[in-house]
Write a structure and sequence with these properties.
heterodimer, A: mainly alpha, 11 helices, elongated, B: about 250 residues, Alpha-Beta Plaits, 4-stranded mixed beta sheet, 3-stranded antiparallel beta sheet
């Protein structure tokens, strides 16, 4: 074998040994344990401490609060949504103070009226709903049931009432448009309110002297909407929506 | 003294060479098959999340809790999960906004008319099975864990930002202090302790569901069975594991 081939061979062998050596030096031990990554990093990630203890944990010491909240409108709310992360509080056995959001703004994060929220979710217009007062003066945060029940219709037609309450028709009572036999509230299906069949319900306010005098939005009742009933285009309980 | 290579010999050698060419190919293929067969973590947990858009009230408590739990910078632009508000106008125009990720809630819309539809969409890392961010990482610092979660090895990341560029969902960010890439982990540390991810935990309207894809009786399996499921950017073939229900077609 010629001399130069031998030398070249030697260089290649040294290079290979160096590569293998460097490789084992630089590649961490647990690399390729599960795949093309450091297996150890899974443990690193799992070791990260949790700060939120979870809904069940608080009840171990605050039994009474859990009882109250579990049968209230707020039963699906985790304590830590309002009180912040609680793991440390639990580890200290309740020795540190947990914040409690008492300002209006906090409740309004969830309850202020927004078109984008799902219809039927209880919302209030912050400007109209007891402005200047703190929410918990009337609603217990853990059992927010309103201090007195609203209109009677709401008891059974909640979604409609919630929708109307934040619409341009908020101030109209149900009876403005529906004539309801008092017996409907006792035996609803046996005494259904009569179906609304004529434009008269709406025209009263939106095309005529009565409404005009009050400055309500007016239409020309003979041309507007053609032969359709008003509520084939407008939602009666939420007129600004389409 | 050059040996003469006639045609017969040439073809003979060519044929002999062939098996040795196929060998590495076969080896590669068999490892690839093995990798994809074990992918779903047979017998163990393989996680996914369901998001019901119709239930989201846009309160932003998930965004807040996520930052608390995972020590994510409070400054804007660093989010592991965030909420977008979509507004579809009557003239067909669609606008999307996410003021500070929705962490302080959303202001009322200024206009009262002309809006056809509006809703909130919670977003987060889609934990893709074929994650572009994993494919582009030059050092193996981000990877699909056996549980199907795309994780970051913060000690191994070199901060090249390729993965941030590659993510079609914009779910990654540069950690402002460590100068490495960072992302949602489905709260891996909580799952390992038997807790649910914190965004699922604090959601007041149960818009999010976490579960084991492998199990027939997991909440996620139920969620996927009873809802029509949409995936974000399904056309990219990233095989995301965040399943959306009641999603409007305009959302990408």
């Amino acid at each position: 074998m010629p001399e130069q081939i031998k030398r070249l061979g030697l260089v290649i062998v040294i290079a290979i040994i160096a590569m293998v050596g460097l490789r084992s030096l630089f590649i961490p031990e647990t690399f390729y344990e599960y795949g093309h990554y450091r297996g150890e990093s899974l443990e690193d990630e799992a070791a990260y401490p949790a700060r939120y203890a979870g809904h069940e944990a608080c009840g171990d010491c605050h039994e009474a609060h859990r009882e109250v909240i579990n049968s209230s409108y707020h039963r699906n709310l985790n304590c830590e949504v309002c009180h912040g992360p609680g793991q440390e509080h639990i580890e200290l056995g309740g020795d540190n103070k947990m914040p409690a959001p008492r300002e209006r703004g906090y409740c309004l994060l969830c309850h202020s009226y927004l078109v984008s929220r799902p219809t039927g979710f209880p919302q209030v217009d912050p400007q109209l709903h007891n402005p200047g007062k703190l929410c918990f003066e009337c609603h217990d945060a853990h059992d927010p049931r309103p201090p007195h029940s609203p209109t009677e219709c709401r008891g059974c037609h909640r979604a409609i009432d919630s929708m109307k309450a934040v619409s341009l028709h908020a101030k109209l009572s149900c009876e403005t448009c529906h004539r309801v036999d008092p017996k409907h509230k006792v035996d609803p299906r046996g005494n259904l309110p009569s179906k609304l069949m004529t434009q008269e319900v709406c025209v009263r306010c939106h095309a005529g002297p009565e409404g005009k005098a009050k400055g309500l939005p007016q239409i020309k009742s003979d041309t507007h909407g053609e032969m359709y009933l008003c509520w084939e285009c407008h939602l009666p309980h939420y007129p600004q929506g389409e | 003294m050059v040996k003469k290579l006639d045609r017969r010999k040439f073809i003979e050698r060519l044929l002999r060479m062939m098996p040795s060419c196929v060998l590495p190919l076969g080896l590669g293929l068999s490892t690839a098959c093995r990798a994809s067969a074990g992918k779903k973590n047979e017998g163990g947990s393989y996680y996914g999340m369901g998001v019901d858009v119709k239930k989201c009230i846009g309160c932003g408590r998930c965004v807040d809790a996520c930052k608390n739990e995972n020590n994510v910078s409070r400054q804007p632009f660093f989010f592991r999960t965030w909420i977008e508000r979509y507004v579809i106008r009557r003239d067909g125009k669609v606008s999307v906004e996410s003021p500070n990720g929705g962490i302080d809630g959303f202001p009322p819309l200024k206009e009262r008319q002309g809006i056809m539809r509006s809703f909130f969409v919670p977003k987060l890392c889609n934990q893709c099975d074929k994650a572009p961010c994993v494919q582009v990482c030059p050092v193996g610092a981000t990877y699909l864990s056996p549980e199907g979660i795309v994780l970051m090895d913060k000690d191994y990341c070199i901060g090249c930002r390729y993965c941030i560029q590659a993510c079609p969902y914009g779910a990654r960010y540069m950690h402002p202090k460590l100068r490495v890439a960072d992302k949602c982990t489905f709260c891996y540390h909580r799952l390992k302790k038997g807790l649910r991810p914190v965004c699922v935990e604090v959601c007041p309207s149960q818009a999010r569901v976490i579960g084991n894809i492998n199990k027939v009786s997991s909440p996620l399996t139920r969620f996927r069975r009873i809802n029509e499921i949409h995936l974000l950017k399904a056309g990219l073939n990233t095989e995301p594991k965040v399943y959306y229900a009641h999603l409007d077609g305009v959302v990408t």
